[in-house]
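User: Before I run my own analysis I want an independent prediction to cross-check against. Here's the chain; please return only the structure tokens and, at the end, one sentence I can use as a sanity check.
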Amino acid sequence: MNEKQLEHFRQILLDWKQELMEEVDRTVRHLQEDANNYADPADRATQEEGFSLELRTRDRERKLLKKINETIEKIDEDDYGFCEACGVEIGIRRLEARPTATLCVDCKTLAELKEKQLGG
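Assistant: Structure tokens:
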């Protein structure tokens, strides 16, 4: 992968990271501003369920932020775009679809098949 392509993916990852961080800020403000103490238990439960859903979403995004940071480190170390399982280049189209991909299509397919066999 050439320098221009690496910079392209770095920018995609940085933009994605910025969007996620803005969502975190919005969530914090939302939780602080909308935290009403409803007298009605049903209203309180509805509000708490909404907060719970929002926090679960942010937790998934926190994990994604970690992967984004790890991927940016790989770009910095000139180790980006190679499959962690077999070492071949992952491919631009796959990386465009999932910039944090660590496995090539073949290894990812095998991993998913193994997961299905073990899980079900």
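Sanity check: Residues 81-119 form one domain.
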